[in-house]
Amino acid sequence: MSSFKRNAFTYSTIVALGGFVFGLDAALISGAFKFITAEFNLNEWQVGALGFGPGIGVLVALPMAAWSSNKYGRRTTLKTIAALYLISALGSAFAPSFATLFAARFLGGLAFSSITLAAMYIGEVSPAQWRGKLVSMTQINIVLGLTAAYFINYWLLQSTNSNAEWVSALGIREYTWRWMLGIEIIPALIWFGLLYIVPQSPAWLIYKGEFDKARETLAKVFPSEEIEDHVQVMKESIEESNQDRSIGTQLKEIFSKKMSVVAIVALTMAIVQQSTGINAVLTYAPTVMEQLGLGQNAAFEQAIWIGLTSVLFTILSLVLIDKVGRRPMMITGLVWVILSLGVCAYGFGTAKYEMTTDAIAEMKDIPDVDKLSVLVGKQFSTDIEFKEAVKEVMGDISARDNSSVFLQKSAVLNAMLILIGILSFIAAFHFSVGPIMWVLLSEIFPISLRGIAIPFFALISSVISALTQFFFPWQLANMGASSIFLFYGGLVFIGLAILIKFLPETKNLTIEEIQSKLRLKINKN
């Protein structure tokens, strides 16, 4: 491997590690919800708020990240983000109350803009023929972080049942959820230190008029004979744009007629990516698995399969993206997403829930479980009806704290079909719109607009994500699993129809060649 390629891969890998921290932060909370809910006696809206907290933070952070990435540079902004992850992890682990924990989760949301900045930076130091793979490394790191979180949560849960001396010494049994959230401190600290190795983005240096420094950075990732060509092309890209660089002017240019196709594609991808419901499923993975009647331990164990599936199909996407192309993988993947969501909706829609005398006897450790005898002989056609009946008999707190056991003992459904549907959905997402959206966002905007455009459309995606995570506990309690998956599938279908018409192919093209191709497409439309 040449030194240029090695440097490009090294810098991209370090920056993409922010995705690993992001994945940990997003998924570690999934295992902690049960423990936090019991300790702070939370209702569904408060649980949703903890899932939603980072979403609020990212809404604040993305406009700031856009401004900071243009004023202070991509690298400096990434360092700030790494520091925020570290502070958030410390605050979450030692939070004494719901309000403090929510504040720490909000602070972590400020750091979620790392994904946006990573895609931007990597796209600016990557040669065209490697850009798809290198930008996709962020998504791979996200799913590695997610998978690591599910393994850590499962391991910690199993440790609580151990009589080992170290478990008692470390207080894992008493502070399980704090260990789950605190483990993020280590990778956040490592990432913060490694960011001192990467250079400033050459595109940003050109943007700031630092041409000699830009040449120094380009010399690390391109052969010397190609450097001047890259400098000249980037200069021309900036000179052709509106020289008024205020945020308002740049947004106006993004939505101008000459950028119409780009704006439609970016907006649709931003909405569709989160309208799949992916972050609701990942954030509340054990809760989703409990709906299959698996019980708490098995739900945590099955959540690991979500992580492993994410890793496998993200790697497959990375391998194929510069060979097959962005457009066919995106279109095929979204069709696959819709079909998978349909399978989940069908599986939950045909489920039945029955409480038996034998089941009640098996739950004798639950206080006042004999009260459930009044439900024996009754059949419930939806999980909502069953949960409401249990709540009336057992009370809100018992129904909430023992929900996984009650579902496990009463559900009559095709759990394998639903599990296959969920894993198929996870696979489809990470094969297509998950990583490919970030690749395309790093490619379809000119240098002069990228610092504002990528965070802006990431902001839209984050709004949808935050709303999805906030409402999911309420939806699960009031709509039922089948209706939720049908709702997600309908939204994705609308987005698919738009992308079939407007999405261009960008593989193996320089960013400047992509701009020329998009201008031709705009003229045709």
From TrEMBL:
The answer to keyword Protein transport applying to this record is no
Protein topology in the membrane? Multi-pass membrane protein
The taxonomy runs: Bacteria, Pseudomonadati, Bacteroidota, Flavobacteriia, Flavobacteriales
Q: Name one Pfam family in it.
A: Sugar_tr
Specify the protein name: MFS transporter
Coiled-coil-forming residues are none
Q: Where in the cell is it found?
A: Membrane
Q: Does the keyword Ion transport apply?
A: no
Major facilitator superfamily (MFS) profile domain location is 11-507
